[in-house]
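Recall that a protein's primary structure is simply its ordered list of amino acids. Everything else, from secondary elements to tertiary packing, is in principle encoded there. The following example makes that idea concrete.
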Amino acid sequence: MLASFLSTNAQADDALYKQFGEKEGLAKIVADFYDLVQADPRTAPYFENAPVKRIQGKLAEQLCVLLEGSCTYSGRDMKRTHAGHNIDHAAFNAVVEDLQSAMDKNGIPFRAQNQLLAKLAPMYRDIQDRE
């Protein structure tokens, strides 16, 4: 009985992760997302000369952890990562729009998108520069 309970809990815990296609799906979403932010005039300047492949890998790790996948995030915290980049409210919103577009392109259900965005929302305070 305990084994059945633990198995059910593990399945419930990674259900959202599975909706995102696990590691392979997240890698595709992140690649599409970076294509969008680099082409978006509202966000492209923030990514000039950035180590995009490294950033993509760290973002995929971070999303995997947030979605309760079997991953470990090896990057820096959001405050340190984004310090000095002068990210304003408009740029932050543009990044969110681009992420939503990447998720749409990859067929992520709206409810699952909202669940991920709710997990990302608290990071806003550490990403946006306050004036």
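The helical segments are 2-13, 15-19, 22-39, 52-66, 78-82, 89-105, 110-120, 124-127. The chain is about 65% helix and 0% strand.
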